[in-house]
Design a protein that fits this description.
The chain has 179 residues and is an alpha+beta fold. The chain has helices spanning 3-15, 40-67, 85-88, 151-160, 166-178, and strands spanning 20-23, 70-76, 97-102, 113-118.
Length: 179
């Protein structure tokens, strides 16, 4: 969020030393799981930070596009980030596409439907979604996605599910190395 750091990153992109950028823009203010709080000042600060990071993400993607590089931006499939105009407009860039994947297709016990907005067609193979049975053989006999009852456990699960699975990271990094 530090503007001096952002300027440095943008300078590196413009110089051509970066050929791929992946952004996992924080989804907290864009999430349908977002819950209100009673501290309005803290909520306003969190909102401003979330919008600022989304604007910077859009700026990075546009800079990568101008520099001829690749970019990807990930968020939960239901995230409102993809409806935010500066992000939604990225879908109109040449070669831009959405890639949808579910974490359970990468060996995790929860579904976590996710989306990548990217101009990197070589990432298309990451688009693996759950059809209800496709991935559950690998989950040691589990037949259903893990579901936590109660709001606290659900929020905790969403935080734990925020990390990418090892299997997804391995496949992703292999694609980058080959490209």
């Amino acid at each position: 969020s530090r503007r001096s750091t952002q300027r440095l990153v943008l300078r590196w992109i413009r110089s051509g030393i970066i050929w791929y950028v992946h952004l996992g823009t924080p989804c907290t203010v864009w999430s349908i799981a977002r819950r209100g709080g009673n501290n309005e000042a803290r909520a306003a600060a969190r909102e401003a930070l979330g919008v600022g990071l989304a604007l910077f993400s859009a700026e990075v993607c546009r800079a990568m596009d101008r520099a001829g590089g690749y970019w990807s931006l990930e968020n939960p499939r239901s995230s409102r980030l993809f409806q935010f105009a500066p992000i939604a407009e990225l879908a109109n860039l040449p070669g831009a596409r959405y890639i949808f994947f579910d974490e359970c297709a990468y060996g995790e016990p929860y579904k976590k439907p996710s989306a990548l907005l990217t101009n990197a067609s070589f990432l298309d193979v990451l688009g693996k979604t759950c059809n209800g049975t496709c991935c559950h053989d690998r989950l040691e006999g589990r037949k259903r996605h893990e579901i936590s009852p109660g709001v606290f456990k659900w929020i905790l699960k969403t935080e734990l599910a925020a990390a990418y699975s090892h299997q997804l990271c391995s496949e992703w990094s292999e694609l980058l190395a080959r490209h």
